[in-house]
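Can't attach files on this board, so I'm pasting raw text. These are the components:
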Amino acid sequence: MIGLISYLIFFLILALSFGIAVLGLNLQWGYTGLFNAGVAGFIAIGGYTMAILTGPSRDAVLGGFEMPFVVGLIGAMIASGIGAYIVGLATLRLKGEYLAVATFGIAVSIQLVCLNWEYLTGGTLGLIGIPNPSKDLATGPLAQNAVYLGIVIVIGGIAFWALERIVKSPWGRMLKAIREDEGAAASLGKSPVRVRLESFILGCMLMGLAGALLTAFIGYISPSDFLPIVTFQIWTMLIVGGSANNRGALLGAVLVWGVWTSSGFVISKFIPAEIQAQGGALQAVLIGLILVVTLLMRPRGLIGEEKHVSRHASL
Amino acid sequence: MFLQHVADGLLSGAVIGLGAIGLSFTMKILRFANFSHSELLTWGAYFGLIFFTIAASLGNVFDAPIGPLSFGWGMFVALIFSAVATSALALLLHKLVFEKLNRVAGHMTMVFASFGVALLLRHMVLLIFGPNPIYYSNELQFAVLLPGNVRVLPDQVFLLGLTIVVVFGLHLFMTRSRTGIAMRGVSENPDLSRVAGVNVSSIINWVWIIGASLASVAGVLYGLTVQLRPELGFALILPLFAAAILGGAGSLYGAVIGGLIVGLSENLSVMIIPTTYKPAVPFLLILAILYFRPEGLFGERK
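---
Top answer:
Structure tokens for the assembled complex are below.
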């Protein structure tokens, strides 16, 4: 029983951290119609910022600042926000699929930097010894993980609440107006390029936040944590849950991460060790199937978009 | 060294160009960026391996190397059958996924469906053939020394020759055959073509067949001159998009020249930046072309 509970806590920490990244993608794709194919890259920026700001000093690698967890979180959001600003200036004039190609390229480039800029990222070996704040707040692995889950729930809750407020605000309605008909929005004096940039930066900051939470929990970061498969997973979570619905984004995160980990468990149990690499491929095939089947059978996702109108409007 | 980089750039550029033709046609005629196109190169290469192995077992004619090349006549059998098999795969994907989505959803939905399809296809190769690199043949080849101290392998000369033949053949098809002319019509204006009596859905099938066949040839040639591995196509996604966007969507020669530009810039870049950052070069080309000339070098200005 204890084993099950401790596993459930572990599972929820990861699922909800990913959920925060899905919320960020939902703001970009669900509400603004921006196709960000570089999610993994922005999660990586957040993760590495957390690792550098809070980690211990290391030989020949930048670090040793040993700053508090909260500074790491804020720093991660700022760093991924700055990254998004630079990327956005260069790419947000692009429409639809060109934006997809460009952001895909961003993620590939960020991955290359993670692999090769050893002074900053520790190269392929990655960075270890990143402090987990729950170690100071509780004793024993179970209590520590429970505390960390509490931290993730509070931060995720704040993000969810803020996003719900944002999308129901005039700014949120403007996002949807631009998504639906950019020309009409522009003709009413709105600036689509500027609003898209704002939405993109805010979404990427949430991805960075998710990366920081994951990194501090695991205590270790390396380039192989941010392969393009992470981008696919986040996208599948959003599509399955239902885009343009923040509840759907979180539901999708828990469901898809559940399928991912349980299939991984089944594979590790029943597939011989010498072909485990292929077992991992089976997991990826499953995620690809879920994405395609959802698009074909239920394009709105499990819970799709709700109609929002201004609370001042009379219907 | 400069000339050697140019030679290597032209060789990898030829493969990228062949692969990009199909991507460019799908972007123009089917109107979506197909991220799974590069996986057709991977499948083409592995289909080639299956047919090459079968052909080589049939007789010495197919197995024994031709002159200085590393492979026998079985490679030609493999190229043709692989093109057929890859086309069948592409048509299957079209029927099962893209055709249906095109009716019910927007084209951005097709773009991320193609993400899912790419993931499926790539990991199925990993599942079936395993993660280790494979080679078509273990024959030793002696490099030919060209003027300027440039070394090329006989297989690489074959690669360039076959690329020229294939592109010329496609040029004839697009300009002389009724299907090719109809295809150009559909890419300009599908509605008008339909009114003029063109069967648009059969033309779309042809787009998949041509794109997949060229992808399979490119995949086999890549496998022949580099190696076969499940990430073969995945590593080419950005180079292929860079070539298609550089050339301008829908342009046959644009895609080929775009491919050569990408191949040359990748290989020449190592003279100024560390080799490890080479994979970012196509991305920088994409940003530059979208910024300065979004319709591509040979595309039409809207």
